[in-house]
Input
Amino acid sequence: MESSKNVKPRVLVLFGGESGEHGISCATAAGVVEAINHDRYEVVTVGITQQGQWVPVDFSSNQFQISEDGVAEVPSANRQLFLSPGDGHVVSLPTLLGSEFSLSDLGSFDVVFPLLHGPFGEDGTVQGLLEMMHMPYVGCGVLASAAAMDKPTTKILLHEANLPAGRWETVTAGQWRKDPCAVLERLNSLGMPVFVKPARAGSSLGITKVSSTADIEAAIVKAQAVDPRVIVEQELTGFEVECAVLQGADGGIRTTEPGRIAMRDDVEFYDYKTKYFGEDTVSLEIPAKIPERLATQVREIAAQAFEALGCEGLARVDFFVDPEKDSVVINEVNTMPGFTPFSMYPKLWEHMGIGYSQLMQELISQALARPLGLR
Output
């Protein structure tokens, strides 16, 4: 699918968002915008502020690099953007409507690259909006995005597909409010230790490793500060391994050799701080030093999980691999994984011979070839 109105297809890069991963999205966009072939595509960048406004952004990659100070943020603007239903146009209006009212049309776009992480972006909400606007986009559709964002739903679907996903319990806000004692009693069946997580968050936000039943209540309250829906997972043995999945324009599914998150012995688990600011405590081991039979199993299960959730375009499937037990268990599925040049997803494909810029080209081509509407 090529645009008939433009010499170059127009790509709208959408980033920022209202979730706790706003800054991660900004850092992802910084890498992606630089990597897209601007000779082949016209790239327009649109940021979503933490308050949910869509604003034009005069993009500078250095401006949006993530830092430990949390300064990566989409700034407010005196104009905001709206999508025109049905025709893929983006229009610009003043933030405050007044006597100097002026409307401008940014034109239509051939494809949207929604570089959004977490709720209100990676969870099917933006995907649904783009479907209604008849705008092609990179990545998974509404159902797969929503299902993968919600960890309990992911596990239910994986179990239905006879894929290994570990043991868990879901704690809803209503259950916790009505009878927390009953909830705690139910969680005892998982044993110790457990991981208490927000059900719909990424980047390890709000996660606590709990080794004593006395600490579960505080961990649930911490997770509920991110998401009122909580998942409590039995600890998985082994170490974390990740596998990247990429769908071609022909629908074919490819996987990478697994990569390992190698952590220093004194790091308890791969939390938010370690993930993004732990340069001295973690390293990427590509390919992962695991037995070949387990690496093959990881790749096969990653492709099966991709299909079981109905994913499209791309995903990263995370595992725990325990060579001593000869076990491979899915931890989670990420439909819009971290995409900085140093993130695991592009690094895995680089190892397979697909560079960062080529990866952008493949994802955009797949989105352009995908039909609109039900599929």
Q: What stands out?
A: Confidence is low (pLDDT under 50) at residues 269-278. The chain has eleven helices and 17 strands.
